[in-house]
Design a protein that fits this description.
It is built from 10 helices and 11 strands. The protein is of the alpha/beta class and about 300 residues long. The protein starts with a helix and ends in a 10-residue tail after the last helix.
Length: about 300
């Protein structure tokens, strides 16, 4: 069985006759009939019922035809991938995203990019704190979206967003009931829920952590949020992640002055010491277009 035979079968069904199929394929009608006959012999089943004026598929022929459509589609995708690669374009783009970034903005870009580049595979990994930059510097990803990093001459960066962090807890959290600004001594007796840095070999970072207090460590912000909602402790959360929880008073903001104005700038990062392929450049430009208005500074 060959792709050519399947294309002949498809042409017959699309045009309605052997003769029309031959014309569309620029072949003799005998060549079309020969291709179908060989296909039937190889599969050992009749594909067409030829008793009527127009060829009709047998039950078995219908099953073969339905399967052939997916085979032809995959073959076409393979040809497109070959053309794509022959032009020097990448087959895969890898991104490492800091888990606190507004994910909906990234998804909108990736969906649009995927429609324009259907042959390109997208690989996304979520990291915490220094994990995204580490993945980029280790050569595991093409683009990282992460909070401001220590200067490294291998990095190119473009400011993308500013994210505010709020100290929050469930309404029943005892210090939340105090009618005054909180002191460190009010908090250190309760668990602070923190998300661990996902760096593998770099020095791990901590941000907004009371070192003297009791810590519960998780590896995911969704788990942290669930613990906070359950009243297990308190912690810093990205404002955009918990806005509905605040509106519905499932969580409340703690009046702890040292953490009242915590925010972080987030950047798109890529290596400047490695050649950038055209597809990675395209995605970089599209991600830049989704950045926060007015935050176009470059490092």
């Amino acid at each position: 069985m060959t792709l050519d035979q399947l294309r002949v079968l498809s042409a017959i069904l699309e045009t309605g006759s052997f003769r029309a199929a031959a014309e569309s394929l620029h072949r003799a009608q005998s060549a079309v009939s020969y291709a179908v006959r060989n296909l039937e012999e190889e599969l050992k089943i009749p594909i067409f019922n030829r008793e009527g004026y127009r060829p009709r598929l047998t039950v078995a022929g219908q099953a073969i035809y339905e399967k052939s459509k997916s085979v032809l589609l995959q073959a076409e995708e393979l040809v497109q991938l070959g053309n794509h690669l022959s032009m020097g374009r990448e087959a895969e783009i890898k991104l490492a995203l800091n888990a606190v970034c507004p994910f909906s903005k990234v998804i909108d870009v990736i969906n649009r990019f995927s429609r324009d580049q259907p042959s390109v595979r997208i690989v996304l990994t979520l990291e915490n704190l220094g994990g995204s930059i580490e993945q980029l510097l280790d050569g595991n990803v093409d683009i990282a979206l992460a909070e401001a990093a220590e200067w490294d001459e291998r990095l190119e960066a473009s400011r993308w967003d500013n994210i505010k962090f709020l100290p929050v807890a469930a309404p029943g959290f005892p210090p939340a009931c105090l009618d005054r600004p909180l002191l460190k001594s009010d908090l250190i007796g309760y668990p602070q829920i923190i998300v661990a840095d996902s760096s593998r070999h770099s020095e791990r970072k901590t941000v907004g952590v009371l070192k003297e207090g009791l810590h519960w460590t998780v590896n995911d912000f969704s788990v942290k949020r669930q613990l906070l909602l359950a009243g297990s402790g308190w912690g810093l959360m990205p404002e955009h992640v918990i806005c509905e929880d605040l509106e519905n008073r499932r969580l409340v903001i703690l009046d702890y002055p040292p953490f009242s104005k915590m925010a972080a700038d987030f950047y798109l990062f890529r290596r400047n010491d490695i050649p950038v392929g055209p597809i990675a450049e395209d995605l970089w430009q599209q991600l830049q277009s989704a950045r926060q208005t007015g935050s176009g500074e470059r490092l």
